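Per your request, structure below.
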């Protein structure tokens, strides 16, 4: 079975994949997989950008979003004309010759990956560039990815990487075939300093413990900063210790990426 693998750590937000998708499908018909994509109004693959945190600690995150080629395609279940088809390699497409234009599949897709082409009277979506795969080539979005952030191939070839990968909205039970690695989730950061000397404190030990969960620790850097990444929402206990200073602790309810500001330590 074919899968897409997206690595957030490799993506620099260049949007090459998004442009490549348009380049391959706008004005081009690839029967039986797709009729031409409109120049505007649709992005079968789009790069989502999210900024989180607060100044001076802000992170920009990019995520490639396309049809998930789900094992259980909810949009296909809503189709009354059997226009959806699944290939033996797992790629899902809408046959434009069979689509009646009822558009029931458009709102049914939980990933918002199916689009209505009102002018042509059909629904459309990413095909995984099935016409290129038939020729032994890569989907155009993958081929033009400059950083290796988006890849495509047989699931068994990615077995080691898929072990710690995630899928979007896995709670739906749709079995997505697009896997995500190194998603940043949320972060929690701050700065530790000595107000008496008016200097930052390097090497302070900062411990973060999730309530009922695991504990992580790190030391402040040359700027007195600490930053815990890839956190899930929840309740945490933050503790800071440094030789010659009184320890401090704070309970934190994390709902979004948060910069806690500075922590002035009192001399022991």
């Amino acid at each position: 079975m074919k899968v897409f693998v997206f690595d957030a750590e490799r993506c620099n937000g260049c949007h090459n994949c998004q442009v490549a998708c348009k380049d391959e499908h706008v004005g081009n018909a690839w029967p039986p997989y797709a009729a031409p994509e409109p120049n505007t109004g649709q992005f079968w693959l789009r790069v989502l950008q999210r900024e989180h945190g607060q100044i001076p600690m802000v992170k920009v995150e990019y995520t490639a979003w396309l049809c998930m080629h789900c094992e259980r395609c909810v949009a296909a279940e809503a189709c009354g004309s059997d226009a959806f088809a699944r290939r033996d390699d797992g790629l899902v497409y809408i046959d434009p010759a069979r689509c009646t234009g009822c558009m029931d599949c458009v709102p049914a897709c939980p990933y918002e990956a199916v689009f209505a082409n009102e002018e042509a009277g059909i629904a459309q979506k990413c095909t995984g560039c099935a016409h290129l795969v038939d020729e032994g080539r890569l989907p155009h979005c993958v081929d033009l990815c400059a950083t290796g952030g988006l890849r495509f191939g047989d699931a068994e070839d990615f077995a080691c990487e898929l072990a710690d990968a995630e899928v979007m909205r896995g709670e739906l039970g749709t079995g997505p075939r697009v896997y995500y690695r190194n998603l940043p989730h949320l972060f929690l950061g701050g700065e530790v300093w000595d107000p008496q000397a008016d200097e930052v404190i390097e090497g302070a030990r900062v411990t973060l413990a999730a309530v009922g969960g695991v504990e992580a620790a790190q030391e402040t850097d040359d700027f007195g900063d600490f930053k815990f990444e890839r956190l899930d929402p929840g309740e945490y206990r933050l503790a800071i210790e440094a030789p010659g200073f009184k320890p401090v602790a704070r309970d934190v309810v994390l709902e979004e990426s948060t910069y806690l500001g500075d922590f002035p330590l009192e001399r022991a």
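The chain has a mean pLDDT of 96.

Regards,
D.
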